[in-house]
Amino acid sequence: MELRLLVTFEKVATVLSFTQAAAELKYAQSSVTSQIRSLETSLGTELFDRLGSRIRLTEAGARLLPYARRIIELSEEARVAVTGADEPAGAINVGTMESLTSYRLPALLELFHHRYPQVRLSLRPTLGDETRQALRQGVYDIGFLMERETEHAGLQTEVLTAEPLVLVCAPTHPLADAAKLATVDLADIQLVGTEPGCPYRDLFEEELRERNGAPPPFMEFGTIEATKRGVAGGLGVALLPRMAVREELASGTLLALPWEPPFQLYTQVAWREGKRLPRHVRLFIDETMRLVREQESASRSEEPNR
């Protein structure tokens, strides 16, 4: 099996799209299709089921994928060992969520872009269970989680920080002048939220249902930015990570309501348990831990009374 064919197979298996794989590998789509067919011919089996415009791994393809990833990793390690290259290099598939990509990771992405240009980062937007499953299957090298639990079967994790949550409203909202709020006070309030599956949205909804005895009235928005705009426009209140609303709280566009969530979420970086981490992946984890903790230290000094 040629390494080139395994690299193409691994990329197609990761993104489940010949078109996207071709774009990321900078090949013509016909070249990707030809390489996959060559690999299937050499192995004497089909690796993908073609379902119209969609594809999925066959049983044989699923068995091959972890071996392909190990061969690619070992090939990169061998190249570095033989050439004595000092520059970290290699690809990292990262599963993450919108709030972390937008508000936690920009400094990290900028650092790697300028200081480690040979490290190729590919960010995949997923949430919770999907991220954990992709890590266990080897689809992702690294995953970012924001969860109440800090231990996950089959994964190793590093807790980066406790992630404070804040209930926000517009300055003109009827609750804006409240001195204190209990969960029962939110029973008839219009809520604005991101999609189901978002960890703080799900926990908030569960808490309201348990305390108030009925499903809460959520107006769903697809993104945090859209949610913030809806809240600022007076459409309701929303529970969001404090990191996502710092600017709006500072400018007065949004106000923090006096309600304390009865649950705590932790931002974590995770990878498959027992996975031998290449140098560039270990570097990514170390730099992530360093930068997030620096961010939190700076935030605490700026907001001593938050």
Please summarize what this structure is.
The chain has about 300 residues and is an alpha/beta fold.
Description:
With 306 residues, the chain is α/β, with parallel strands linked by helices. Among the domains are: 1-86, Arc Repressor Mutant, subunit A; 164-263, Periplasmic binding protein-like II (D-Maltodextrin-Binding Protein, domain 2). It has helices at 3-15, 18-25, 29-43, 59-83, 98-103, 106-115, 128-137, 199-212, 224-232, 242-251, 279-302, and strands at residues 48-51, 54-57, 90-96, 119-125, 142-147, 155-163, 165-169, 191-193, 218-220, 238-241, 255-256, 265-272. A five-stranded mixed sheet has the order 4-3-5-12-6, with helices on both faces. Strands 10-7-11 form a three-stranded antiparallel sheet. Strands 1-2 form a two-stranded antiparallel sheet. β8, α8 (199-212) and β9 (218-220) form a beta-alpha-beta unit. The termini are far apart.
